[in-house]
Amino acid sequence: MTRVLVPVAVLEGETVSPGLMSLLGTVDVTVLGYHVLPEQTPPDQARLQFEDRATAALEDLSQEFRAAGGDADHRLVFTRDRKQTVRRVTDEVGADAFAVSRPTGDVDRILVSLSGDVDVDRILSFVEDVVGDRDIGVTLFLAAGADLSGGPGDAGGVSDTTAGRLEAAAGRLRDAGIDAVTERAADGSAFDALIDAVPGHDAVVMGERAPSFRSLVFGDESGRVAAASVGPVLVVRNRREVDADGANGAE
Amino acid sequence: MTDEPSGRNLDGDAPVAESVAETEEATITEGAELERTIGLTGGLAIGIGTMIGAGIFVFPGLAGGEIGTAATASFAVGGLIALLVALPTSELATAMPRSGGGYYFISRGLGTLVGTVIGLSLWLGLVFATAFYLVGLGYYALDALAQVGVTVGAGSGAIVSVIAVVAGVAFTVLNVTGTENAAKLQNGIVALLLSMLAAFLGFGLLEAFGVVAVETPPGEAESVWEAVPILSVAALVFTSYLGFAQVATVAGEMKDPGRNLPLAMVGSVVIVTVLYVLTIFVATNIFTRDALLSAGETAMVEVGRALLGPTGALVIIVGGLLATMSSANASILSTSRAIYGVSKDALLPRWASRINLRYGTPHVALGMAGGPVVVLAATGQVQLLAEVASFLHLIMYGLMCVALVAIRRDRPEWYDPDFVVPGGPVIPVVGALASFGLIAFMDRLSIAVGVVVIAVTAGWYFYYARDVTLKGAL
After folding, report:
1. What domains lie within chain A, and their CATH numbers?
2. Which of A41, A49, A76, A84 best tests the B interface by mutation, with the highest count of B CBs <10 A?
3. Which of B18, B131, B144, B145 supports an S-S bond with B377, CB 3.0-4.6 Å?
4. Distance between CA B244 and CA B263 in Å, rounded?
5. Longest pairwise C-alpha distance within chain A
6. How many percent of chain B have pLDDT more than 70?
7. Could you give the number of structural domains in chain B?
8. How near does any CA of chain B get to the CA of A64, in Å?
């Protein structure tokens, strides 16, 4: 079963919007309650004081997720480094994606970015699982100049061109009964083009990229997309990393 | 022997006990996980950052002024003792990678009475050390003022006290209200200091071996190469080596503790020992005993001036300010952790470890650190503060070595250290003897103050926590 990790800053009163909750109703969810501590505070000390309160909130959240459809459990982590915690727990629970939680209403159409060096096959099967047989439209997006390598175009043999591969990806989703359209940006930076394409969509799905100089300077791409698009983002993890931890993360 | 602490204190609180599992990346308790976020670099920065302020920037004048070049031997002795203690501490820390450091090991190895005495003395020892760093900061601030043309004639001692008190209040308030991540800043400061020192010492050594020549002021006084003065200076400057045990207080937050804890502790001791010995060598090579003595706490500024002119003096002043600040700040943080460790075990009231909701910081513990620090800093007594801090730490160091021997003998089921000190009981026994032995060379007054502190903490145990049992628990 596909599993999504939903990190929530539980002691700061962050919660999960009903829209994201129902979008994830078709998959299993692990709610990651985290609390980022200043360095003056030993994590253990914070745990002693806040654990009960945080656990109560997390139990409520996972109950709501269960009511929305899929199975749900929760983890609670006290940390100084949010990113490190999200990566670790994603690996440990064997999640296929993690969410950047932002408010949204009912989800009618999602934007799926295939730009960059991402695992297209994995993203597409994740989208198929999430959408299921619901009436949610998908827009497949590819930035200008981006090549779609290793996509389903290879298998379908429709065309060797990038446009052909993008169309083949959409065809695969249509075969699964999903209303899929494609969109290619004409020019500009991949990030700006993606943000420009967001209006009309309620959530963004994107692949995980290796840390780059850009992400060091400007922060994680997923976080920036979530901030700029004012909506939730689902980041699909790369296959090899999940496989590497599949042995101990499967339980 | 039970695996869980038991008993109740005067307020009716019991020690917090739970079963936890340690992995390389997190501590996993029944209902929550604690992410390990400090790497080897961070651990080394804590150790070096805490230590370097005193040894390089405050003591060369005092130690060199006493015995001249022989002070290199004092620092080497101090480093050797620190290393003898750092190895057993590493073994204990990898077996119990929990916050609390030395207190935690001793209370589990030797029982509640000794644990209470050490837990509270660690708190107060860190308070003395922090006050000492702040007074050092005061001297450097005074020199910085002089450098920009503000000269203070009479009553400079009072100015130093005022600066130390203001800085103490400022650090406490910043730590309660600040949620900025100062750890990255600390790493940067340590890197900057190390590179400054490397350049400075490199040039100083070239001078010492006659490759370059600078004008050295004439002086008559000879170095004192005798065992007793060397050891008594070693006892004074031992405050320069307190930082490695601070690494143990964040043991619960280190990534891959089995590897990083020993490396950070032993590594930081070795690095600062080399730096200290070289610094003293350079300083005493340029200035004779009496010249260093008259320059006092900030003698290094004069050494910098002699070597590299006004630029050299400026570099040392900036370095001294940064180093003493980083030492003071790191010590306040360790103090608050020490208080938490004791309070969790019901040896201090539970409210001492409360965290405020607004900033998420342990304001009570930080106040219990900062308050007495400010009072002590107001005294402006560099040598007394340093020696009492050393005294209280040396008692803890000696007992940590004893605790290692005791725990190895008792072998609780959970005792499975990743790092084992080679050579059986030899190193911990020598380490304990050396730690206790060094105390004998301290000033009478410092010993008296230290003994009073210990008597008061023991009294607290009989009053407050007599029924708490910690020995052998995890």
Report:
1. 3-102 (3.40.50.620), 109-244 (3.40.50.620)
2. A41
3. B131
4. 11
5. 60
6. 95
7. 1
8. 20
